[in-house]
Design goal:
Blueprint lengths: L2 H32 L6 H24 L10 H12 L2 H26 L10 H25 E4 L4 E4 L8 H34 L11 H38 L8 H25 L1 H11 L25
Antiparallel strand pairs: 1-2
Helix pairs in contact: 1-2, 1-8, 2-4, 2-5, 2-8, 4-5, 4-6, 4-7, 6-7, 7-8, 8-9
């Protein structure tokens, strides 16, 4: 296959996934913010995750799609373009915000399932605002070095990184920080918390659910459904982002040399796929979300009946905490 044909296919793949990403996650945000029976604390965290996914899609578009439509500016303007558009720094911002949101959701699931009546750990709107603010503040702090070291090299006509000469190990340390902060720590936390949740829901009988005929089964079914959604999204993040984080570290330590454009493109495709697939996970697992989506696309006047199963309403249509 010729290089031009590969380029066309690559741009087509990115275009399909970016459009799917932006439209799908916009619909997730719209449904959660406009439908009263979808406005639960955990759903707000999912909306925050959708915002991060849109950021990833927009950044990928500026790198692999829109960049073909204009001539990259030079000088100071070129450096700013590198920082915010053409070098992918915003992609890393979106990725960090995604995993921190997923970690927060895992804590919510853990306390909701193992300590459902604890007011101390119960998620509410005030706590969601604090969690969201912390998520974005930590994300921005983590990414500050990227925005400082990117610049446009007029000699090579491309965006480059300029790390401080002293200390010489700074770029290596930064790659490790990324690998640990956005990879190892949140994924280990999610693995531990979800293993406890899975054990409680599927393998251990719980005395925390009211023994009312029909109620226990409905609540447990709702909890399992929500747990499947968030675990699926978390696993997808690990599968698609860890290769990029790993290669980033290996490259900094010269364990792999001259990572080719194909490897970089494949990693970018994986990251874009992760951001574009999440709305499909919600639609596949959540009947209520599917109904709202169908009402938006096909039949705006459809009235969606609300089925309340106590406090287990995440992505199922009740505003209470689960």
């Amino acid at each position: 296959m010729s290089a031009s044909a590969q380029e066309v296919i690559t741009v087509a793949l990115f275009t399909i996934m970016v459009v799917t990403d932006c439209i799908g996650n916009f619909l997730v945000i719209w449904i959660i913010l406009t439908k009263n029976n979808m406005q639960s604390p955990m759903n707000y965290l999912l909306a925050n995750l959708a915002v991060a996914d849109i950021m990833v899609g927009g950044s990928i578009a500026s790198q692999f799609i829109i960049s073909y439509l204009y001539t990259h500016p030079t000088g100071l303007a070129g450096s700013y373009f590198c920082k915010f558009f053409t070098r992918g720094a915003i992609t890393w911002v979106g990725g960090a915000a995604s995993v921190f949101s997923l970690a927060a959701i895992s804590f919510d699931r853990y306390f909701a399932v193992l300590y459902p009546y604890s007011q101390t750990f119960k998620l509410n709107l005030k706590k969601v605002k604090r969690i969201t603010c912390f998520c974005w503040i930590f994300t921005l702090v983590l990414n500050i070095p990227l925005f400082l070291i990117l610049y446009y090299d007029e000699k090579n006509s491309q965006c480059m990184e300029k790390w401080p000469k002293r200390p010489s190990w700074f770029s290596k340390a930064y790659s490790i920080v990324w690998f640990v902060a956005a990879g190892c720590i949140p994924l280990v936390i999610m693995f531990y918390l979800y293993s406890r949740v899975i054990y409680r829901l599927w393998f251990k009988r719980s005395n925390h659910v009211p023994q009312v005929p029909g109620t226990q089964q409905a609540v447990m079914k709702a909890r399992k459904r929500v747990t499947k959604i968030v675990i699926t999204v978390s696993v997808l993040y690990g599968m698609t982002w860890m290769p990029s984080l790993t290669i980033y570290v290996l490259d900094r330590y010269d364990i792999v040399y001259n990572i080719g454009a194909k490897a970089f493109t494949i990693n970018s495709l994986l990251v874009t796929f992760n951001s574009s697939i999440n709305p499909f996970v919600y639609a596949f697992q959540s009947e209520k979300f599917r109904r709202h989506l169908k009402a938006f696309i096909c039949c705006p006047r459809i009235i969606i009946n609300q089925v309340d199963v106590g406090n287990e309403g995440q992505l199922q249509g009740t505003p209470q905490q689960s």
